[in-house]
Amino acid sequence: MAEFDLIAKYFTRPVTADLGVGDDAALIRVRPGYQLAVSADMSVSGTHFFTDTDPYLIGWKAMAVNVSDMAAMGAEPRWATLSVALPEVDEDWLSGFSQGLFACADRYGVSLIGGDTTRGPLNIAINIMGEVPAGEALRRNGAQTGDDIWVSGKLGQAALWLQHRMGRLDLHAEEVAKLATVMHQPQPRVALGLALRGIAHAALDVSDGLLADLSHILTASGKGAQLDWGLFPLPELPFSQVARSTMQQAVLAGGDDYELCFTAPQLRRDEILQLAQTLDVPLTRIGGITAVPGLTVLDGATRIELSHKGYNHFD
């Protein structure tokens, strides 16, 4: 199958009237009074997913991790481009992958407006663009002393699945199935990100592990943080016993969560809790921002020390 036939069959769809697609570049129109938010993520076989993963799930997650970046900025996801290297033309794989990709894109209102294909080791690169009212984007550099630190959902579930998959943790089949869904089909918190505009001082999505990602907020804001392990909502594992240290490593540094971590004034606590009910999204206060740089996690009176604080591609 020729390159443009492949693109036409699996990745070409009708586009909206405000787009010009089909030339050497797509033309987009940003609404007056809005800024363009742009991000990019790659998904590499053997690094971000196992080779035997269902291609539908690979497609969903490849798009979802990019949508999550828009959520973290308080931006409405709008457009994306896809570049993919393929070792061969496998039409069954392409069919499943494109279905998963577009299922996620449709869920969050994203139009695929261009990209590229080539031969090579399996690598999926997506550039995503969104719109946010000028001056209202959620940034990493706005955390203030005394802010509460919040997270959405439950952290550590994807990391626990990965530990099971790699033979390092024995879990019950029902638990594995639930954790696998979290790992392979993350649900970006777009509605939450939009609602946090004007409430949160700083925000990001948790992709490489909470401690590693929160450190980006602290560095950009010139602040520190203290977290309380006793406040964290933990993954529900009714059939298995997981060592406390294993759970702490997964929740604090596991990665692949794609939940939002944000800071907000203490005076907004009731508003944030009401927001959790309105959006049906669990929001948990896990600590606070301090004036003194550094990141401390306390389990009672004991400081938690981890060997790894998050994922690093070049470790």
Automatic annotation (TrEMBL):
Family membership:
Belongs to the thiamine-monophosphate kinase family.
Which UniProt keywords are listed?
Answer: ATP-binding, Kinase, Magnesium, Metal-binding, Nucleotide-binding, Thiamine biosynthesis, Transferase
Give the gene symbol. thiL
This chain belongs to the protein called: Thiamine-monophosphate kinase
Enumerate the residues binding Mg(2+) 2: D41, D69
Q: Which GO terms describe its molecular function?
A: ATP binding; magnesium ion binding; thiamine-phosphate kinase activity
Q: Which positions does UniProt annotate for Mg(2+) 1 binding?
A: D41, D116
Chain positions recorded as Mg(2+) 5 binding sites: D208
Detail which positions bind ATP: G115, D116, R140, S207
Q: Does the keyword Metal-binding apply?
A: yes
UniProt xrefs under InterPro entries: PurM-like_C_dom (IPR010918), PurM-like_C_sf (IPR036676), PurM-like_N (IPR016188), PurM-like_N_sf (IPR036921), ThiL-like (IPR006283)
- Pathways involved: Cofactor biosynthesis; thiamine diphosphate biosynthesis; thiamine diphosphate from thiamine phosphate: step 1/1
Summarize where Mg(2+) 3 binds, as residue positions. Answer: D24, D69, D205
Any Gene Ontology biological process: thiamine diphosphate biosynthetic process
Q: What is its EC number?
A: 2.7.4.16
